[in-house]
Amino acid sequence: MSTLTIRLPDDTAQRLKSLAQSRGLSMNKLVEQLSAHALSAWDTENHFRALAATGDVNKALSVLDRLDAEDRKAPAR
Predict the structure, then answer these.
(1) Entry's SUPFAM superfamilies (predicted)?
(2) pTM of the shown model
């Protein structure tokens, strides 16, 4: 496990402490959870970028056209 020292503005650090306390977490655990969330979002973005790079634009547009046609046929809610 690594130790990381970060510098934050005082108001940001205080708000993070308040958030951790409101969730019943230590600052360490809160930062660990926030980091995991950020990395998950980054991994998802990279995954979709990789899929998009290998995708067929015309095929994707065809799928969207079919979905639009189905939506137009569906009764209004």
Answers:
(1) Ribbon-helix-helix (SSF47598)
(2) 0.66
